[in-house]
Amino acid sequence: MKISTAVAMRISNILIQKNLSQYRLEKIIAMPHNTMKTLMGERNKSVNLKTVMQIARGLDMTLSEFFNDPIFENSDLEID
After folding, report:
1. pLDDT by residue (tens digit) across 6-60?
2. DSSP SS3 for 2
3. Disulfide: which of 2, 53, 58, 77 matches 29 by Cβ 3.0-4.6 Å?
4. Alpha carbon of 77 to those of 6, 46, 59: distances in Å?
5. DSSP-assigned states of every residue in 50-66
């Protein structure tokens, strides 16, 4: 699994847990819809830390909390 896929899955799961829509998150963090759509649609081959930090803050989480998920412990996670 690619890191971008893992990040998108984690965001989706958190949005469900917090009963928050993707649109609402976009508004909270002032992220353009196309940027979020690209990230969540897994068309992006990489994701940068700045974007993840912006999303985590919008979700009222620390980076540690965001990455504290078994999905990121997968030894087969592709980081290239």
Report:
1. 999 999 999 999 999 999 999 999 999 988 988 898 677 778 899 999 999 999 9
2. strand
3. 58
4. 8, 12, 24
5. HHHHHHHHHTT--HHHH
Instruction: Count the Cβ atoms, other than its own, within 10 Å of residue 77.
Output: 13
Number of residues that this document lists for the chain: 80
Burial 30-69, CB ≥16 within 10 A → b, else e: ebeeeebeebbeeebeebeeebbebbbebbeeeeeebbee
Q: Which helix (H) or strand (E) holds 11?
A: helix 3-17
